[in-house]
Amino acid sequence: MPGSPKAKLETVAYHLNGSAINARPGETILESAARHGVEIPHLCHKPGLRPDGNCRACLVEIEGERVLAIACCRRPTPGMAVRSDSERARRSQRLVLELLRSDVSGTPQDSANELGQWCQRLAIAKPRFPEGPQPPADLSHPAIAVRLDACIQCTRCLRACREIQVNDVIGYAHRGAASRIVFDLDALLRTSSCVGCGECVQACPTSALAPAGASRFAAPEKAVDSLCPYCGVGCQLRLQVKDNRILRVEGRAGPANQGRLCIKGRFGFDYVQHRERLTRPLVRRDGVAKTPNPDFTADLRRVFREATWEEAMQRAAAGFRDISERHGPHSLAGFGSAKGSNEEAYLFQKLIRTGFHSNNVDHCTRLCHASSVAALMQMIGSGAVSNPVADVRKAEVILVIGSNTTENHPVAASFMKNAAHAGKTLIVMDPRRTALARHADYFLQFRPDTDVAMLNGMMQTLIEEDLTNDEFIASRTTGFAALKAHLAAFPAERVAPICGISARTLRQVARVYAGSRGSMIFWGMGISQHVHGTDNARCLINLALLTGQIGRPGSGLHPLRGQNNVQGASDAGLIPMVFPDYQRVDEPEARRRFESLWGAPLDARPGLTVVEIMHAIGDADATDRIRGMYIMGENPAMSDPNLPHARHALSRLDHLVVQDIFPTETVFYADVVLPASAFPEKTGSFTNTDRRVQLGRQALAPPGEARADLEILVDMARHLGLDWQYAHPRAVFEEMRRAMPSMAGITWERLEREGSVTYPCRREGDPGEEVLFGEVFPTADGKGHFAAAPFSRAAELPDAEFPWILITGRRLEHWHTGAMTRRSRVLDAIQPAPTVDLHPTDLDRLAAGTGDPLRIRSRRGEVVAYARADPGMQPGQVHLPFCYREAAANLLTIDALDPDGKIPEFKFCAVRIEPA
Amino acid sequence: MAGSKEQLFTPEIRAEIDQWIAKYPAEWKQSAVMAALRIVQDANGGWLSRELMDDVAGYLEMAPIAVYEVATFYSMYELKPVGKHKICVCTNVSCMINGSDNIVGHLEKKLGVALGGTTSDGKFTLKEVECLGACGGAPMMQIGKQYYENLTPEIVDSILDRLE
Predict the structure, then answer these.
(1) What are the residue ranges spanned by the domains of chain B?
(2) Chain A residues within an 8 Å CB radius of B74
(3) Which of A31, A237, A259, B81 registers the highest number of CB atoms within 10 A of its CB?
(4) Model confidence over A158-209: pLDDT tens digits?
(5) Does residue A520 belong to any structural domain of this protein?
(6) A162 touches chain B (CB under 8 A)
(7) How confident is the model at residue A110 (pLDDT cuts 50, 70, 90)?
(8) pLDDT over 70 for what percent of chain A?
(9) Are residues A514 and A410 in the same domain?
(10) Average pLDDT over every residue of A655-681
(11) What are the respective helix, strand and coil percentages of chain B, to the nearest 5?
(12) Is A799 a member of any domain?
């Protein structure tokens, strides 16, 4: 293939159509011709896909050669004379196009149809050859329409499905004239194993695979380069827009996604025009009391009445002022959102700190990686990733633990799968066998809650077998002696029966990780969401420090960030104990800096975290009972643990202002509701899991009277007596640069120009650092600090009454609490109802089958969900996604917290199951 | 793929597939896919279920779709249950010139099934195949591992009558 290492690294001078041109090293005739503006027809070739040379449309004549050559696979040699425009070459190109054209029904008409375009350019009218029998359309899938009567079997879809995304669904089956594109074993697309990423749609040159619905032929008015609003991977995409609606979404070649998207990013954009969008400010009707369990399906108009913006803002601000005057500033709190932009996060925390005068501001980072960040800050002085996901290409060993990457970070997972197929060693460790495990060299299905024992066992192996990096330990770390003493109690043979993985495997995996030239560790909520989440993360950091697997390309630590801007929101200070850039509120020097920047006195006391705030609402005896809250874009009535308690607390608030785009469950507890803007309706910067700061650009106008969140925040600040002037997100970003040294070098203009800049970027013109900690760690002494992690158990273990282990998680198609995705037609059609995963033998034990309703009960609540057999589960464990209002998994979860990260234990509690 | 490789197939089948895997370089074990499919098909009454193909994929560490492609390409693999005796009649050029149409017509009438069909008693499946390399004895057919050449309707009758 072109660009392979065997290609000579010199440019090649040759002649094309009589002109002398140069081909770059490894370039094919087709690629070098295209670069010089010479068009050669081609259909099976697409940049980024492996050249296959099957369509033969790119035939060229090479002087001195008897037969024609295909330009997409042939590399020029020095002095070669190539003609793509000779009569013989043209005649053959035209014949091939005519034959391909006769393979398809009707006239290829839509503008994106490459076959139609080439036929037009080469003036090929109706083919002379008769059309063969055509297969019927397959319109079974909500997102993708399959019309194989338009298929020319170029296999671009197949290469996209199997070589780019590695989903292995599309095949080229049968033989000769009967050969055709199939899904699995010739299934309908809807019933196949397709995950709907749409990479095939993006690859198809004839619209044989196209977005479902009529919009596929519509011509857009404008194309807007923006970002995906869902996960932390930070995929860049292009929105095709007409009449203030998004017609289609295409992947762009961003550094984090290389043109790839997943089903949510590509097909889950229609939520923005859902009929339930909030379009006017609302205030609670007099006499409609708040109850802990409101009917979330009730007509919103019975609970609220519409108001003008002025009335709503006055009410909202007056409520806060009133509580503050009577009960003091610590009786107020705010939840910002990791879905909002950096600028929104920054202004929200500034509003709470200078308008509410407390540090009671937090967001859902508390629920996802707070423990990881606590461990990282403690041990290496920085809470962000050390290397980008893209570094899997440079690593030799990729260890993924506690992350269902294919469902939660699908595009990142595709790069991991690529790496595994390129010969890298993939190690997957998880209590559930998820889809990534199929690609793994080692899959360790350990017992839930035993991470610390297992990881300590691996580290003890390294010490016993003298596989530690002693030079790194001596020069770059402190605390090794204490760790070594601690680990002596964890020989692999001793932890094997605890974690359920053989000592031989533990030792083998430890050796593989330690011995490679570059090992990366990726982790997700499976590590962080435990009462010992910080200890889990400490073990991973210890492992990297013991072996020196950090600080080089392809060697480092990467907690996969969940929300699209959870990294940026945390950086911007949407955290109760730190100002922007993790400067501690209880450090006088930092506080003075921000007091002078913001021109306001600041509270020295760290604020309360998400779950602590919920507790502080309910606690009538607390001196600082929380009585009023401002919630922007978060949905604690679904996302918090132990929902019966959290919802009770929300209903007890004297004053709740919710700013959102939909009537979320949390809205039903509000006094004032402010209609906000959806992702494509505003401009802002967002920071992905790799620390890449990228621009989301406005493509649509908000509906009705809904306003951009930034405008609402500025308006709120003014109503609270602050003199805020921010005309554009750019102005906020400028202030952030002054507040945050690590981003000081990034200018808005550069973001507009380059689309993505990685921080730290301290001075203008710095390239931005993708790989950190090459020389020192950002700790006081510059060293990494080992931290021994004791083995402890979950807060609530199974017993006779509640014998099952509940693990909460996600589904590929749904995002977080489902506020957006359950209002996306496509996504909700694929995953419409709450399902609970159990091992097939457990289903047999319950005398239940797939689709049967099961009642799941914990000490806190109960839900009913439909059974789904999943042989990837271990017997005795159930997995329930938390996005379904009608079976909210968090009614069951426990609100026990990790002592350091204050993260609740979403990944483990005891439940009981019976047929409903 | 369900569980570990030791849970796939019987020890005898695993041993037989392993013999084929051993013929190829260690990192190219999927080269044994055709042999593996034949082995599990023979052990399964002459056809391949999806589960069996998935198991072959798991055993050879390849994507199931790649196994399906092989299984749908070659006419020797059956993706639906077949009769006890699979009658494969060649209808390629040499056999056609020497009267394979007659043989097919006779078989269809005698068995009461069309090409591709299986008799209701499950004894015979009638199948049209591409050249089996016995043009010198055209028209011909294959049943099991046996070739039968220079066929006439009478010879076909006597062959079928001898089958249990």
Answers:
(1) 5-73, 85-162
(2) 175
(3) A237
(4) 999 999 999 999 999 999 889 999 999 999 999 999 999 999 999 999 999 9
(5) yes
(6) yes
(7) low
(8) 98
(9) yes
(10) 98
(11) 50, 10, 40
(12) no
Cβ proximity of B125 and B86 under 8 Å: yes
pTM: 0.95
pLDDT digits (tens, 9 = 90+) for A35-59: 999 999 999 999 999 999 999 999 9
| Cis peptide bond upstream of A135, omega within 30 | no
Residue A815, token pair as written in the block: 């995002």
Per residue in A838-894, pLDDT tens? 999 999 999 999 999 999 999 999 999 999 999 999 999 999 999 999 999 999 999
Q: What's the mean per-residue pLDDT of chain A?
A: 95
Specify the CATH number for the domain of residue A544: 3.40.228.10
Please tell me if residue A438 touches chain B, with a CB cutoff of 8 Å. Answer: yes
Q: Which CATH architecture has domain B85-162?
A: 3-Layer(aba) Sandwich (3.40)
Q: What is the mean pLDDT of residues A747-773?
A: 96
Provide the pLDDT for residue A131: 83
With 70 as the cut, is the pLDDT of residue A218 above it? yes
Any idea what the CATH number is for the domain that residue A675 is in?
3.40.50.740
Chain B residue with Cα closest to A872:
B2
- A513 shares its domain with A610: no
pLDDT at A1 (0 to 100): 41
Distance (Å, rounded) from C-alpha A199 to C-alpha A644?
41
Show residues of chain B in contact with A162, CB under 8 Å. Answer: 63, 65
The pLDDT-based confidence of A707 (bands split at 50, 70, 90) is very high
| A/B interface, count of CB pairs below 8 Å | 38
Across residues A538-566, what is the average pLDDT?
Answer: 97
Residues recorded for chain A? 916
Is B69 in contact with A173 (Cβ distance < 8 A)?
yes
pLDDT for residue A3 is more than 60: no
Per DSSP, helices labelled H in A381-450 are 405-408, 410-421
pLDDT of residue B134: 96
Nearest CA in chain B to A170: B65
A630-642 mean pLDDT: 97
3-state class (DSSP) for residue A579: strand
- Cross-chain residue pair B50–A169, CB shorter than 8 Å: no
The pLDDT-based confidence of A111 (bands split at 50, 70, 90) is low
Residue A147 · residue A135 · CB < 8 Å:
no
The amino acid sitting at A703 is: P
* Bond into A729 cis (ω within 30): no
b/e sequence A110-139, b meaning 16+ C-beta within 10 Å: eebbbbbebbeeeebeebeeeeeeeeeebe
Could you tell me if A545 and A390 are in contact, meaning their C-beta atoms sit under 8 angstroms apart? no
Torsions phi, psi of A638, nearest 5?
Answer: -120, -35
Q: Which residues contact A463 (CB under 8 A, 6 or more apart)?
A: A484, A487, A546
For A307-388, list the strands marked E by DSSP.
Answer: 332-335, 361-362
CB A588: neighbour CB atoms within 10 A? Answer: 10
Between CA B70 and CA B79 the distance in angstroms is 11
CATH number of B5-73: 1.10.10
- B2 vs A171, A174, A871: nearest CB: A871
Q: How many angstroms separate the CA atoms of B129 and B132, rounded?
A: 8
Other residues' Cβ atoms within 10 Å of the Cβ of residue A730: 17
Name the one residue in this structure whose structure tokens are 């033998």: A841
Provide the pLDDT for residue B6: 78
Inter-axis angle of helices B64-73 and B33-43, to 10 degrees? 80
The shortest C-alpha distance from A27 to chain B (Å) reads 29
What is the share, in percent, of chain A residues with pLDDT greater than 90? 95
Distance CA A325, CA A677 (A): 31
Residue A658 falls inside a structural domain: yes
User: What is the nearest CA distance from A748 to chain B, expressed in angstroms?
Assistant: 45
Q: Are A508 and A442 in contact (CB under 8 A)?
A: yes
Exposed, middle or buried, A403 (CB in 10 Å: 0-12/13-18/19+)?
buried
